[in-house]
Write a structure and sequence with these properties.
about 15% strand, about 35% helix, 7 strands, NADH Oxidase
Length: about 230
């Protein structure tokens, strides 16, 4: 037992020492704040080699896994597609797409191969909620989204840029299965990673007045339903 803790014998719980509840003052990370302020998605055509090496990729994925996860269920996972595997995946996608679209013009016969080859690396973000868990499924899905955002932020911190997309290969169960996505899982996004060819101008962002409100107890309810 901590020598500074005191036990209330009536309930057997420890009373925290005031020293243990003092705020820990962590100085702001100015460089981190500046990088977060500058982070933006890059066009897929604007992502080029060199992609992350093994050490940089491992760093990105470790940081991406440090997200809120109620119940420690890890309701997400990552599938990395890089190197020659990109072309092989694209060719399989093209074959499936042609099978599903028999009237596909010849000019689009290799569209998914070209798509897969645009960025040096792609991470398939997979949402895998456990329906039997006590944690609501929506919480688990949100955790997967947080993992995707953490991955894009980690990539930006390492000097890379990303494009998060969810096109046909992620929405079609047969196409997703080509990447190893299992029944009960869903693709939450294809996160393409590479070096940016240029730093694009930032897009307009919502003003805080548009998206932030402060609740007070005297606010009228907007719901007509009786709780």
């Amino acid at each position: 037992m901590n020598q500074h803790s005191h036990v209330h014998h009536g309930h057997g719980t420890a009373t925290p020492d005031p020293a243990d509840t003092a705020p820990l003052i962590v100085p702001p990370a100015k460089e981190m704040l500046a990088r977060l302020e500058a982070r933006r998605s890059a066009p897929l055509r604007g992502l080029v080699e060199p992609g992350p090496d093994r050490q940089e990729l491992a760093c990105m994925l470790r940081l991406a896994a440090r997200v809120p996860d109620h119940g420690r269920l890890v309701p997400w996972r990552f599938i990395v597609v890089e190197g020659e595997a990109r072309r092989q995946a694209g060719e399989q996608l093209d074959a499936l797409y042609a099978q599903q679209n028999p009237d596909l013009p010849a000019a689009k016969a290799d569209m998914w191969t070209l798509y897969m080859l645009r960025a040096p690396l792609m991470v398939v973000l997979v949402s895998r909620p456990d329906p039997a868990a006590k944690v609501p499924e929506w919480n688990q899905v949100l955790s997967a989204g947080a993992a995707g955002m953490a991955l894009t932020t980690a990539a930006a911190a390492l000097g890379f840029a990303t494009q998060w997309l969810l096109k046909w290969p992620g929405r079609d169960p047969q196409a997703a299965a080509l990447f190893g996505v299992k029944p009960g899982e869903k693709v939450a996004g294809f996160i393409h990673v590479g070096r940016p060819v240029r730093l694009n101008e930032d897009r307009p962002r919502p003003s805080l007045d548009e998206v932030v409100s402060y609740w007070s107890p005297d606010q009228p309810s907007t719901s007509k339903e009786t709780p």
